[in-house]
Amino acid sequence: MMNTTKTKSLVAVGNRREEPLMTLSTAQVSNKKFWRWGDDNMTPYALSLMSRRSTTHRRIINDKADYIAGKGFACDESVPLLAQFVAQANGDGESLRTVLSRVAFDKALLGNAFVEVVTDQSGSFLSLYHQDASNVRLARDDKHVILHHNWSAFKAEESVVLPLYPHFEQQSDGSLRSVVHYKEYEPMFTHYGVPKYIAGMGVSAIAYKTDCWNISRLDNSFQLSGVMMLDAATDNEAEAEQIVRTAQRRFAGEPGQVMFILRDGQEHDNSQFIPVTSSNEGDWSALHDQATSDIVIAHSWFRSLSGLDYSSGFSSERILHEYEVALNTVILAEQAELLSPLKRILHDVAHIDASSLEVINRPPTRSKPIYMKVWEARKADGLDYDPQDERQQVFLSEITKYNVTSIK
Fold this sequence. Notes:
This protein is α+β, with helices and mostly antiparallel strands. It has helices spanning 43-53, 55-69, 80-87, 96-110, 201-219, 237-252, 281-298, 316-350, 374-380, and strands spanning 73-74, 112-119, 126-131, 136-138, 144-147, 160-163, 169-170, 176-183, 225-231, 258-263, 272-276, 358-359. It is built from 9 helices and 12 strands. It has a 4-stranded antiparallel sheet with strand order 3-2-8-7. A 3-stranded antiparallel sheet has the order 4-5-6, with no helix packed on it. It is flat.
């Protein structure tokens, strides 16, 4: 069963209020039919499987989620409830960064992500839980979601129905719950989002298949493919087939590497191996490299941030440059999209001013030593600097908990 039905500690943080949270709808979904996610409703399973098989594809998804989740949160220290919520966002003891990183991963992988909001009618507490997007489907009334642990064997009695935010409904445990749905926009797709890498699914499969080809060659000790002609006298077809199968198990290695043909034995043994030579290794290598480059492009991502160019030399300047581009074109926009409804929920449900809540972003490498002062770093970058300014007298090591790029 889903965690929405488990007995657990729900208290995270909140302000008790006397007025009701909002108008409640106690009506449940009478028709639990759902919108299929893909033609067979198994699209999340297929996308997840592909990400486990393509190394570059998986690395980019992991890195994007890590960069978007950042290194934690910065907030106004004069709002202690907000700092408490950042440290513990739900009754399971998960931090807000943990929740955000899982949501960012789902959104990068599946183009959809879901966050469950738990409170009570007086708004005395608030908890946010990440829900595995592969377990969620949208109800046909477009006002609810249906959660189930295995959609390949769906049973209505094992499912959980929750309303879509901003609507809340009371559950059997007395709590009020709602679900926030994040989705990547794509024309012609109304109910579910589409991952940004949709155009790169084919090349992800190519990269996986070229890896399989290399593994097959390794398993066969790089032996040549060919046809093995065996001379043997047999009484019947079954015996001949048994001889061929025995030879295949002992000598062929990966199925299809060597083809065995059995023929009637002559006076002299004329068994021979006829190799099938191929000179397409360069083509396979080029195909794999092209597929890898196309995967990066499809993700709207950058090679140096995916670990693809480390073998040709580590260039911290290039990494920092591409990180700056990624920060301003992808990362900040994704962070704003993920945090916007959460800030609204903190304000509306728990009465917490979350306007100061920001993700802490740090570059993957530093081009300046942390013992430099801010004014020295600004001088090295060709920016205006003032050695007498107290704010520029601090060392870079003292401000690493904030986004260093913000001082520019």
